[in-house]
Write a structure and sequence with these properties.
The protein is α+β, with helices and mostly antiparallel strands. It has five helices and eight strands. 27% of the residues lie in helices and 38% in strands.
Length: 204
């Protein structure tokens, strides 16, 4: 990912927390001339002091057949908003887009044994069901889960590099940023309110 130094977030823990909060990403891979991409939910785990992303995809999806031991990229997109040059109220400015994103590079381990598959499914279920008044528990539906295991493949992305890009007008003056924040707070499109909040954090 192209990251000008003023937009780079080198805080690895903050990037991991961002991925946990925006966990529905895209898994990209390439085999010879063919490129593949699948939209998937990812769960962050730690194994032997390494960060690992867990997910699963349908066995009918051919992407998994090319992944074992190969490098892959997972992309996560967070809040984003259009920034109008008119908000700066200064000449020599242009419109842009503010956003937060993370790229994860790693090696893939394909998981097919039922025990490990159920561990991945349980991790995902427990993560997404937390906070629900009546959470759905995998262990209470073993028969249903077992009947579906043959149709999925688990994926472990063993993380080798985390990249974070927080593009929030860092290269503009404090006065310009304040004008942009004020305008963003009046907007109801995109993720304008969240971008305004993140920009305010940057100012503090």
């Amino acid at each position: 990912m192209y990251i000008p130094k003023q937009f780079k977030n080198a805080n690895q823990q903050e990037i991991i927390e961002f991925i946990q909060h925006h966990s529905f990403g895209i898994l990209f891979s390439q085999q010879d001339e063919e490129q593949s991409a699948t939209h998937l939910p990812f769960i962050v785990k730690y194994e032997n002091d390494k960060v690992v992303l867990l997910t699963h995809l349908a066995k009918a999806n051919p992407q998994w057949k090319t992944l074992q031991g190969k490098s892959a990229l997972a992309v996560f997109t967070g809040p984003h908003a259009y920034i109008s040059a008119s908000w700066y109220r200064e000449a020599g400015t242009v419109s842009t887009w503010n956003y937060v994103s993370a790229h994860v590079h790693g090696k893939v381990e394909v998981v097919t044994d039922s025990s490990s598959l159920k561990e991945i499914l349980k991790a995902a279920t427990d993560f997404y069901e937390q906070g629900f008044q009546e959470p759905w528990k995998l262990e209470e539906h073993e028969e249903t889960v077992e009947s579906m295991l043959g149709g999925i493949v688990g994926i472990k992305l063993i993380v080798e590099k985390l990249e974070g890009k927080w593009k929030l007008n860092q290269h503009h003056s404090k006065e310009r940023k304040e004008r942009v924040i004020k305008q963003l707070k009046t907007q109801s499109v995109y993720d304008s309110q969240e971008i305004a909040r993140l920009m305010e954090q940057q100012l503090k």
